[in-house]
Amino acid sequence: MKIAFQNGENLLHVSDNSSECDKDTFFLLTDQNARYQGNAQEQGCTHFISPTECLSLLGIDKKIKIIGITGTNGKTTTAAAIYSLLLDLGQKVGLQGTRGCFINEKRVEDKSLTTPPILQTIKNLKMAVDEGCEYFVMEVSSHAIVQNRIDGLFFALKILTNVTQDHLDFHKTIDEYIAVKSRFFEDESLKLINSDERHIRFNRINAFTYGIEHPATYKVLAYSLKEGISAAIAKKEKVYDFESSLHGFFNLYNLLAAISAVDLLHVAGMEEICEAVSHFGGVEGRMQVVSQDPLVIVDFAHTPDGMEKVLESMKDKNCIVVFGAGGDRDRTKRPKMGAVAERYAKWMIVTSDNPRSENPDAIIEEIVAGIQRTESLHVKVDRYQAIEEALGMQKKSDVVLILGKGDETYQEVAGVKYPFDDRNVVLEILARLAKQK
């Protein structure tokens, strides 16, 4: 990637690809490309800078406050909620994560990695600074921590959502995964930690907590999950109330983290922050209600813990759950996902997610290995047919939950991405079923 930055009256060319370098280009040295420094020199490059030097040269380092959020689940919703609250409170703010990059309510980059390469992050930060943003909210993945893709960034606030099993195809063991997440919180920067997450290790200097079950700086005293979320938060001796249209116990955590974070940034008083929560409508593909009657919800949940949180939030309803598991990813979670579905669902329809280079039937077989109650199990390899079957068998008291892909607009099979959006498929099938009545 080669980017031209306007820096005052000067145009600064920076690249993290040695083959794109020349005598007028700065080669941004990272852990991933340092071995290609010699190749950059052969191209005529004589300017080599670190991410820290690049941020300083562009004047970014002191002009914007970066809020970094890591955790297995909840990063996207928590980041979006903080972004929404800051905007509602009159701040200029950027947001970077799984859904792309947004600056002051405008999308400036499409979906990418949860945490892109550092040069892309620097580009997004520079755009945010140029647009007058004082805050920049970003998701931080465990891969990015391991690969030092956040080197050079100074975080004004670091937030932990939770740590559960995921990415063991990359990290190999849950202990290694926890150690990576913990590394993000080793320094003395301002931190906000989920007090109900008992595995993480963190530096207690400048650390604040939020939670529901254990003592915390920001603690939920009471809550209701009927027709949305309403809750009372205690901060020191004072109690504050908020309401939201979002569903689920896990979203109570996400909103609590967002409220606590904005309060720690001293943007506004707790009353004003809590009032602004009602304006946040959630994130596409995260507990997204695609149809109200019949009730059909699409969610990104693709881990045992993520599935449990979604299904537990609907435990008072008869659930028909459609799900699969991604190919070329942690195989150990597949039977666990099957077991979670069995625990909560009235009917289970196991199908393809993104099989990638794996055989879809083999993935499904590994999921089904975790299911004992086979009389409630249907298998449909074709995802369209699986959704069609779920909607066809749905009764008025049932909710159909379609999990795993959220707002993805494709299905990846054998290296090819085919257009496929769970939400559009639902609407298309419901429209056809309505005509047949």
From TrEMBL:
Binding of meso-2,6-diaminopimelate, residues: R329, D353, N354, P355, R356, G404, E408
Residues where N6-carboxylysine is found: K181
Mur ligase C-terminal domain segment(s): 285-406
Subcellular location: Cytoplasm
Binding positions (UDP-N-acetyl-alpha-D-muramoyl-L-alanyl-D-glutamate): S18, T114, T115, S141, Q147, R149
Enzyme class name: ligase
Name of this chain's protein: UDP-N-acetylmuramoyl-L-alanyl-D-glutamate--2,6-diaminopimelate ligase
